[in-house]
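As a warm-up, study this chain.
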Amino acid sequence: MGTLRQRLAVSTPATDQYIQHVWPTDVPWQDRKGLAVSLKAAQPYACAIKGCKFCGTNQESLAHHLRTRHSKYEILDVLGNTDPDVELVGGYVMVPPFAPPIRAPMPVCPYHYRNKIRCPTCEDIKSFAKSGPMPPLKLYKRVKVKVPHETVKGDYVQRTFNLQEAERTPYIVNEETGAVQHVQLWAICEDCRGEKYVGLSVFWDYYALKDIGFRFSQLGKAGFDKQHELIQDVNPIYLPVTRIMGVSFTLNTDRSGWNQKKNTNQLPAAAHDSLVKFSRFAFDSKTGELKGDRMLFPSAYDSAAAVQG
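Now compare it with the structure written out below.
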C-alpha cells in the first residue's frame, strides 16, 4: 500500500507501529470476532510428556518437538518398558548427582551433564561407554530377566534378581569358553541411551584359576575345594542385563560349613547341584594376588543402597 507519509526506519518496530493510521477502519483482521480460533482438536498430535501443552498438526512436528524440547529420560518414562526380556523394578536414583556404586565404579564428570569435547573426564566416559553404560544413568535395586527354563528345553521363564541377595546369585556363560560363571551383582542400571546393564564381579573356579597361574599356596592351611569352591574377582565389569542366563547359589561359608550343609541336606534346592557352590576369598585377576575375604552387598555408603523400593 502506497502512502505519501515517510516511513520510519528502526531496527525493531512494533507490529503496525508506523502504518496503523493509514489502514482502513473496516479491515477484517482488526475485527477480533472474525479472527480464526486455534483449536487443539485440529492439532491431534499432542505431546504425552506430563505438563507439556504442545500440540502438533502432524507426526513430523511432534517428532521435532520431542527431539528438541525433551530429554531421552522423559520420553523413556512415557514409553515405559519396551524390552520384553528385561524389566527394571522399583524406584531409582540418578548418577549424577549420586555417586557411582562403590564396588562397580565408572567415570562421571562433575561439571558436564552432557559430554563435552576437550574435557578429559568426558573423554574417559566415551571410552568407558563403548562396552558399558554412559552417564547420566538410573540406578536400581531389582531386575526381572527372561532366562532359559531350568528343566524345559526351548522354554523361557522370568527370574528376579536383587542386589541385597548375597548368596542367590545370577550366572552368565563365558562367550569364549562356554563355561558357566557365577557372578555377584553390584549395580543394576539404565543409561542415557536406554540400554540396561549390570555391574558385577565374576567368580573363578579351580580350572580358570589354574589357567592364569594363581598360586593356591596363598590360601595357606585353608586349602581349596577343587569341585565346589570359587574365588571372587575384585575387578568389576559391566555387561548387558541379557547376559544373565539363570539362577545359581554362591554360599558365603568355609569348607567345614559347606560340608556340614551338604551332609545335613541343607544346600539350596532351587538350582541344580552343579550351580550350587561356595566362596570365602577374593583375589585380583590382574595380579593374581589374594585380597582377603569375599565381598558382599550392600554397603551403607553405596549409592545403590539409597534406592527406595
